[in-house]
Amino acid sequence: MAEKKTTAENPDVAAAAKAAEIARLKAEAAAAKAAAAEAAAKAAELAAAAAAAESASANADEDTPEKADKKEAKKAAKKAASDAGEKAIAADKAEEALEKAEAEEPEADTPAESAVADAEPVADAESEAEPDPEEEKDPRAVTLAEGYAFEDPTLTLGCGLIDEENHPDIKIGIPLKMMNRHGLVAGATGTGKTRTLQLMAERLSAAGVPVFITDVKGDLSGLMTPGKSSDKMLKRTAAQGQDDWEPTAFPTEILSLGAPSEKFPGVPVRTRVEDFGSLLLARAMDLNNTQTQALQLLFEFAKKQGLPLDDLKDLQDVLNFLTNTDDGKERLKKIGGVSTASAGVILRATAALNSQGGDQFFGIPNFDTDHFLRKDSDGRGIISLLGMTGLSQRPALVSAFVMWLLNDLFSNLPEVGDAEKPKLVFFFDEAHLLFEGASKAFLAQIEQTVKLIRSKGVGIFFVTQTPKDVPSDVLGQLGSRVQHALRAFTPDDVKALKATVSTFPISDFNLEKLLTELGVGEAVVTVLDPKGRPSPVAPTKLWAPESVMGPADPTQVQATIQDSDLAEKYMTAQDRESASELLAAYAELRRKEAEAAAKAAEEEKRREKAAKEAEKKEREREKKRTERRNSKFGKATRAAAKTLGTELSRELTKGESSKRILGKVLKNFFK
User: Fold this and answer.
1) Global pTM value
2) Which residue has the higher pLDDT, 120 or 159?
């Protein structure tokens, strides 16, 4: 008796078994889909009930039945949504198993073909019970999908987030060409603003756009290091539609504002005092309007006199010359009415700024802001990180310095109009420091720079805690908004929250409630579309950065700095002949002139004294000669008189009348 053939040896039996297995998997998949659809319908029904309860309880007190119904409805809706999600996952797994089995299906010329055909009507019957997906779509999701379906290249920020559920198929982003229309990243401390900034910098760099960032906390150097992949990370990125996530390092330049420090190492960024300008320096020194105008006149004086102002010592020496020297005081009187008091205040403010470390910010070689516009060999934009040394100690100086960078870029860049992508995007973290205590002239300068610099291809993003930190005239020019969570613990917080909500376009969402419930890494986004129209307000689950979310290893940072092309050019401060040296030379010249004049005066005095002595001696000699002459004449006269008297007396004594005549003559002679 022949042995029975095994399934493997009998193709017909194998095909029949395979067909039966496929039929079973199709039936299971259809059942799973039907269960998932039923769960989704139930979840949608409960979500609607929860929304109704939410509306009914909006004006109710905390302990009313309406509030209790709301809580129960939300709880039931959340549970139903979770159940629907689990059933959807089960349906997906069933589909995967079916696809795998079908991929191994033999040729359809076996008896298995009829078995599969017998199973198909079951699947069709089940599929007929599936609801129409279009009927289940949340209208808010449809609005977001349509509002962010840009055809232009887009910088993706994340996926749609509706009722705490990710919508990975809805990508939320900013059209790349609109990045030069400026923007705002705001939110309470700890809500993820820095990570949003990091994500945007990465996406811009990958698109070939250079980036400049003020690194306030010193934790953005991780951009130069690839992030770490893990099952948790991959699960998170997949859930939010970030299918292309992979650990990536980005080209990064580490800069330091002034002298490098342990916390903020980097290539020093300096500028000359006269390039910095009187208005920004007045801001840094907290001068009032009158003193600011006086400083402007003093800058003009230095320029006319050919006195270059490289560092603060140059300015100090000019002020010392004008206030503490006779020559300078005379010149000060002629400088447009600048008072000695104003000059003295400016001198003390300059000395104070110098002692606070301001001398590290000014000098040569002065930094060329064109370095911010570079790309690497792969065409990726270089990310320039500027470490903000001593920001809390001298916020006015640091903010003024950042404004100088913007002004310098504005002065040097050509007009480009509306380009396909910006030349540079500038992120200013802790932006409130730029505006606190600023004068009207300084605020006007900021507003003008923000308004005009977009035509040079530069976008500016302010990063701060609340939109209230930015003046309304500037806020009105910001096209894109990424608003993280806000807190409402105090009446002032509630007022700030309402003010923030009022700045958004009309939305299908309850923003006042939503903004207080956002989690870390979640935000509300609105941008300008390619035609310059505001996009719908979009709750967004932000994508994860691909680099390390934190500081890089210090050894890697130091190696990056040393390998930089800029290190050799800017690392060592230089000195040249400027106002300080020229005034010192002038003072030395005046000293020598004074010494020569004093010596000449002394010599003149000596000559005058000698001349007077000679004259005195001459007078004395003349006197003696006169006396001698007078003495000889007297003797001769007396002798002659005596002889004459003798002779006359002889003649006259001969008669009485002669005696009388002689007496008169002698009397008159000796009278």
Assistant:
1) 0.69
2) 159
